[in-house]
Design goal:
heterotetramer; A: alpha+beta; Alpha-Beta Plaits; 2 domains; three-stranded antiparallel beta sheet; two-stranded antiparallel ribbon; 8 helices; elongated; B: alpha+beta; Glutaredoxin; five-stranded mixed beta sheet
Chain lengths: 199, 152, 550, 455
């Protein structure tokens, strides 16, 4: 989809140019420019500006910072080595990790618990930028809802962060480093969604 | 573990100076000579003999090239790979020697008989390519006569 | 005394001082790996290279003694030195595995810190990770230490500690050149009772602590300065804790007490102090839990029985593991509440043991941190000792007992002392016991009051030398447990109708007045970073020798 | 040519005490014992004798640093750990004239008031140690050594310590450590061995050849010794010639003798009549000379220095025109990487790194900037190590690359000559704070950009 034009409107300058009642009206109209334009598009041009969410969804950029994904190695083990950099950098302090020793001497360390409290997460993506191994990336999943009042419901653990059936519909998101191509086994359902499916 | 003669020599070395550790290098040399290696058992034995920790003995033993952790053959053929010997074709001579003795390049042995070691300059450069059979200088290395030399 | 100039700042130092020591005193930071203030300088890491006017080449600051008029330029201001140090740092990283994400040292690693330093770090790498020399990784050296030989920078601090300080000489280098590798003989586990220090002296992640392994990133830890309560040496330690849990205890340097070391028993004593068997609520003889107001009221009532004025009617047993401040309040309570009282703290022969060595380095046979403080406060003024009190109690000499008890953090209470305490409690009709732990031999007490354990209250301990040292509070006491000072203040309030000021500062002023040996000490000097104050010379009662480790 | 050290070495019977004594062995010791130790030191200082182990430090001066401490012994250590590649002069002396060396040891020990002397011989010289041990037994039996040497009342015990294969033991403090039974890690100076040496006692370490000069100085006088050679390099020098030479061997020449003259006339010129390409005049630890550079060079400390190299141990290694200099350098670099003791950082990591880079260069896998990398690594080693091995390892690398650079460049893949290193193997200068180059581009293009192309 095309990028929308954005433009800064200097309301005061526009108003000063007109003066009087017209000045006030011009100010109001300038503020409503976007609304009015879309109104014209919808009524005169018969163009739908809104979509029927959730039946319809908009595709988002590949740099979209949605719900996190913990990636895996080819052998299915968690790529995360519990270095705590994400927990350290997280400004919302919503990540908490416990580490444990693993047998594989080439790995040594892995998380025994890895939790992101998505009710606190501000989706800034710092955690993903801090990750030295692309063990944590983001998806394009944005409609994060729960039908329960349980505070744990949106507290995702290892299981939930690795098993991501939703990814099929959204695709993978923010990955600033790109040093490793993702393979299918790493994230289930990371295949690219077609535009038709998502609309 | 060691012969009485070696033990006497170590004792004498120990007695020379106030610190027993002074005798460590001698003890390692004699052990290598008699046992053909200084493995864990030997390290423990020497540590006990000189009142040192096994780690101390191990650290010193693994510093020196002539002290080996694995047993050497009954005879050790040291082939010099110093620059002077290199200039005089030591690489080729070493290959031929290994082939003549049926020993792998680089130190393994045939039936525990001979071990070939490639060593840094042994200070016999005027007989390049230099070599030693045990502690005898036999340069210039003549692969053809090696077997006979070893038999002797 | 030679006058030396470092980075334009001058300092006069004693003959024989090294350049790095002079720089440390001036606060000029000189990077180093092998130099350690309590080990003999070896000069092998070459990281402390500095430029000295008149010298053709950079010299190592750690092994170069200052000479009068010497002008030194650190890498902060000298391009020559900076380039030299940068080169050395690059060499150190040539074969380093760069596995910081899984390395416990990360965050307190000299390699990281120096690499990030703009004055001599931040070089570009010219090495392929695939080309590095590989060595042993994750070698278990017993219950204390894990070795990763690839991370080692061969500074030999551990080798020197093991050979020179603890004397066990269990770690050593083998091989030569860039194949040099740190090992123990045949990967044997360390037997050294001071092995934990190997991880402390290691400036990188080659030797890391098994207890602390993967527990927590160090930058998440909070730190509290404290004094080890494992024995009468009073080693200075730093408690690193996270969310109310002690993650590790590491030594804090004090050249006159423990230098830079602590023993492994002391290092792990927090596990026992904060263990599972803590007493969490005040408890009556019937086993029922009490609120604190009920408990204090009941304690007051029980102890009133001992106030009748009959000779020897009350026995107050302090603890050699209690702080001076709590002992001071206990003594004041005894003096104000009872016209006739016996005060003691001895469970065995602590006064004789207090400066008896257990080994050549730090450990002492008296496993209490404050025996000397209890002696100074006059708790063992009379002939006595526990067996005597038991016999007296069994002849109905005491109507009431107030006991403060902390179990020893190293080892278990002696069976004799435990048995005697149990007999004593059973023999005295009214017994109020302040204890941090639930212990079978205290169960018979009429009233059990939960008291804070080590690291849960602040105060001072007086070590075997007579050094008064401040220990901080790292954690909140669990459950309803309170500090001994707070409990004793409540009891005092019942007697004097005025609650005493229990701020550490006030208490210490009173302490310094109450104990002749402490006159001249002030809380200001005590609570400073060094956290130690010696009584003025000639006032020490025991342990005049000072530190004389090997 | 005048001979001091090799006067009797042609006779195999010279190893026998009575034969040697008939030729004047131990006359120098007798002379020394008749004077005071300080007089002996003065005589040696007057002779201008300089250490023959490589550094060329005046021997008499070295002795005068010894300040005996009451109750503490003084030690003389004879450095017979001749391990410098291309050097075998001590080998020659120890085999051919052990009593000459022994006499020198006794004179030096007397001068510094030492009653114990050790001969530290490299492990490979075990067969020479037997010859030396026999010489010691004979001398002791004859009352020359041991209690009251030659009836003078001066006691001297001489012992042999064999090494076990480590070049670094030839370094003074490494030798001391080895003799103490430790890993031969050189010690940082100060303190110097003259103050804190073997077992923390004052110690002098002298090379075999240095000591062998002493009997001559004692019998013939300092003036006669000083008359030989040049003003600042008096005496003679043993030169061991090896490599691509017709008659390799040990030659004694007067200091100031032309290097190529010795090579051409005494040693028979380059092997197989080939042309001379280069020569290392003092063991591998000194810079190499091209044939042109070597032409005017004399065998003495000053002339060598003027030519940009050093006399070193006098181990002269000859390279003929057929030699591949990169391959030869690799061999030398591998030697230092193998022999670096691993104590201090620059040498431990640097020698191995240089050998590594040279190896890939010789194997045709060189990378752009490798030659500069080698020079830079060398620069970072030099002058920053505890002992001289680090500096020594740099000399050949630098001089070979400087003087034969085109040979090294010919080994580099063609494209490698131009491109900066990091472009070749995918890592290098980071352009931003967040990752490798190219990432900014990805970040600045929000929607159309290809960042997830890898998906």
């Amino acid at each position: 989809m095309a990028r929308k034009d954005s433009r800064v409107v200097d309301v005061r300058a526009a108003a000063d140019a007109k003066g009087g009642v017209l000045r006030d009206a011009a100010g109001t109209l300038a503020g409503m420019e976007v609304t009015l334009r879309n109104m014209v598009r919808a009524t005169v041009g018969r163009e739908h500006v809104t979509i029927q969410y959730p039946e319809q969804r908009k595709p988002y950029s590949r740099r979209f910072r949605g719900v996190h994904v913990l990636t895996r190695r080819a052998d299915g083990t968690l790529k995360c080595t519990a270095c705590y950099l994400c927990e350290t950098v997280c400004p919302a302090q919503c990540i908490s990790i416990d580490a444990q020793e693993v047998e594989d001497p080439g790995i040594e360390k892995a998380p025994s618990r890895y939790e992101i409290d998505l009710t606190r997460c501000i989706f800034c993506g710092f955690c993903v930028e801090a990750c030295p191994e692309e063990a944590l990336i983001m998806s394009r999943e944005y409609d994060l809802v729960s039908d329960s009042r349980d505070p744990q419901a949106l507290r995702y653990g290892i299981e939930r962060l690795t098993q991501r059936p939703e990814i099929a519909a959204y695709g993978a998101g923010f990955r600033p480093h790109m040093e490793y191509p993702l393979v299918e086994s790493q994230i289930p359902g990371q295949e690219e969604p077609s535009p038709e499916e998502t609309r | 573990m060691l012969s009485d003669e070696a033990l006497r020599e170590i004792e004498a070395c120990k007695a020379e100076e106030s610190r027993k550790q002074h005798a460590l290098l001698t003890a390692l040399r004699l052990t290598q000579a008699e046992r053909r290696h200084v493995g864990p058992q030997e390290v423990l034995y020497i540590a006990d003999l000189l009142d040192l920790s096994p780690a101390t003995v191990e650290g010193v033993a693994r510093f020196y090239d002539q002290i080996t952790k694995e047993p050497t053959g009954n005879r050790v053929l040291s082939i010099c790979r110093g620059i002077s010997c290199y200039l005089c074709g030591a690489d080729g001579a070493a290959r031929e020697a290994a082939a003549a003795l049926g020993v792998d390049q680089g130190g393994s042995q045939a039936e525990g008989r001979v071990t070939i070691r490639h060593v840094e300059c042994i200070g016999d450069c005027d007989h390049a390519p230099a070599a030693m059979l045990d502690s005898t200088f036999i340069g210039p290395l003549d692969p053809a006569s090696l077997s006979a030399l070893i038999e002797r | 005394m030679p006058l030396v100039t470092i980075d334009g700042r001058q300092i006069e130092v004693e003959q024989g001082t090294s350049v790095i020591q002079a720089a440390d005193r001036l606060g000029v930071e000189i990077p180093r790996f092998c130099y350690h203030p309590d080990l003999r300088p070896e000069g092998n890491c070459r990281m402390c290279l500095v430029e000295v006017d008149g010298y053709a080449r950079p010299v190592v600051a750690c092994a170069t003694p200052v000479a009068d008029g010497m002008v030194v330029h650190s890498p902060h201001e000298s391009a020559t030195a900076s380039q030299a140090v940068n080169g050395v740092l690059e060499f150190l990283l040539v074969n380093h595995p760069l596995d910081c994400p899984i390395c416990d040292q990360a965050g307190e690693c000299s390699l990281q810190d120096f690499y990030m330093h703009p004055d001599y770090g931040l070089h570009e790498s010219h090495v392929d990770p695939a080309e590095k020399v590989h060595k042993h990784k994750r070698v278990d050296l017993g219950p204390r230490i894990v070795l990763d030989a690839e991370r080692c920078v061969m500074c030999s601090r551990c080798v020197r500690f093991s050979a020179e300080v603890s004397g066990y000489a269990e770690v050593q280098f083998v091989r030569r050149g860039n194949r040099v590798e740190l090992v123990t003989f045949e990967d044997r586990a360390l037997e050294d009772p001071y092995a934990g220090n190997l991880a402390d002296v290691c400036p990188v992640g080659a030797l890391t602590s098994r207890d602390f392994r993967f527990k927590r990133r160090v930058w998440h830890l909070e730190s509290t300065d404290a004094i080890c309560a494992g024995c009468s040496t009073g080693c200075n330690v730093r408690i690193d804790h996270f969310k109310g849990k002690i993650e590790r205890v590491v030594p804090r340097r004090n050249p006159s007490v423990n230098r830079s070391w602590i023993c492994d028993e002391g290092r792990l004593s927090h596990e026992k102090a904060q263990g599972q068997d803590r007493l969490l609520h005040p408890r009556g003889a019937d086993g029922g839990e009490l609120s604190w107001s009920e408990a204090i009221a009941r304690a007051d009532a029980l102890l009133r029985g001992g106030r009748a004025g009959v000779p020897g009617r009350a026995l107050l047993l302090g603890s050699a593991s209690a702080t001076n401040e709590s002992l001071l309040l206990l003594r004041r309570f005894g003096e104000l509440a009872f016209t006739q009282r016996t005060m003691d703290f001895r469970l065995g022969n602590e006064p004789e043991l207090v400066d008896a060595r257990e080994d050549h380095l730090l450990r002492r046979r008296d496993k209490h941190p404050n025996t000397m403080g209890a002696i100074h406060l006059g708790f063992a003024a009379q002939e006595g000792g526990l067996p005597l009190h038991v016999r007296a109690a069994e002849h109905d000499a005491y109507a009431a007992l107030l006991l403060v008890y902390h179990p020893p953090l190293v080892g278990d209470e002696s069976p004799e002392a435990a048995g005697a305490l149990e007999r004593l409690i059973r023999a005295v009709p009214a017994s109020v016991v302040l204890t941090s732990h639930r212990l079978p031999f205290l169960e018979a007490a009429t009233l059990l009051l939960p008291v804070a354990a080590w690291a849960e209250e602040e105060g001072t301990y007086t070590n075997y030398q007579g050094a008064v040292q401040f220990t901080g509070q790292a954690l909140r006491a669990p459950g309803a447990a309170r500090s001994a000072v707070a409990i004793l203040a409540d009891l005092l309030e019942r007697v004097t109708l005025r609650r005493p000021d229990t701020s550490p500062k006030t208490l210490f002023v009173e302490l310094a007045q109450a104990v002749p040996a402490y006159q001249g000490l002030s809380f200001a000097t005590l609570s400073s970073r060094s956290a130690i104050a010696y009584p003025p010379e000639g006032r020490m009662h025991y342990g005049q020798e000072g530190f004389a480790g090997r | 040519m005048p001979a001091i050290l090799t006067r009797h070495t042609d006779d195999p019977e010279q190893t026998e005490l009575d034969v040697a004594q008939r030729r004047g062995a131990y006359d120098g010791l007798r002379e020394a014992l008749s004077r005071s130790p300080d007089e002996v030191i003065a005589e040696v200082e007057a002779s201008g004798l300089r250490g023959r182990g490589g550094a060329g430090f005046p021997t008499g001066r070295k002795w005068s640093f010894i300040r005996p401490v009451p109750g503490q012994p003084v030690y003389l250590l004879c450095n017979a750990d001749e391990s410098e590649p291309g050097t075998f002069k001590d080998h020659y002396l120890l085999r051919r004239d052990p009593h000459l060396v022994l006499e020198g040891i006794a004179i030096a020990a007397y001068a510094i008031r030492a009653h114990t002397a050790y001969i530290y011989m490299r492990g490979e010289y075990a067969s020479l140690a037997e010859i030396m041990a026999k010489a010691i037994r004979e001398a002791q039996g004859a009352g020359i050594l041991g209690e009251s040497c030659l009836g003078s009342g001066y006691d001297l015990r001489v012992s042999i310590q064999l090494g076990a294969g480590a070049y670094i033991c030839g370094e003074e403090t490494g030798l001391i450590q080895s003799l103490e039974g430790k890993r031969a890690y050189p010690r940082v100076r100060p303190p110097f061995p003259a103050v804190h040496g073997f077992l923390d006692s004052p110690t002098v370490i002298n090379n075999v050849e240095t000591l062998a000069n002493l009997p001559f100085i004692m019998t013939e006088g300092a003036a006669r010794f000083a008359a030989l050679g040049t003003d600042r390099s008096p005496g003679t020098k043993l030169i061991s010639i090896s490599g691509a030479v017709a008659r390799p061997g040990v030659y004694e020449v007067e200091m100031g003798y032309p290097l190529l003259e010795l090579l051409r006339h005494e040693a028979g010129g380059v092997r197989l009549g080939r042309r001379l390409k280069a020569v290392i005049p003092g063991g591998t630890s000194v810079p190499v000379l091209t044939a042109e550079e070597a032409a005017p060079v004399m065998i003495d400390y000053e002339s060598m220095q003027a030519a940009g190299t050093l006399l070193g141990s006098g181990g002269t290694i000859v390279f003929d025109e057929g030699t591949s200099m990169p391959e030869a350098l690799l061999r030398i670099a591998e030697f230092y990487a193998h022999e670096s003791c691993g104590e201090c950082t620059p040498c431990r990591e640097g020698t191995g790194w240089m050998a590594w880079v040279l190896r890939r260069l010789v194997q045709g896998e060189g990378r752009p900037g490798d030659l500069d990398l080698l020079l830079r690594v060398g620069h970072n080693i030099e002058g920053r190590t505890i002992c001289g091995l680090g500096d020594a390892s740099v000399q050949p690398v630098r001089s070979f690359i400087q003087k034969f650079r085109e040979e090294f460049e010919a080994l580099l893949p063609r494209e490698a000559l131009a491109a900066p290193a990091w472009q070749m193997h995918g890592h290098g200068p980071r352009t931003g704070r967040f990752g490798p180059p190219g990432e900014e581009a990805a970040l600045s293009d929000p929607v159309e950009g290809p960042p997830n192309a890898a998906l």
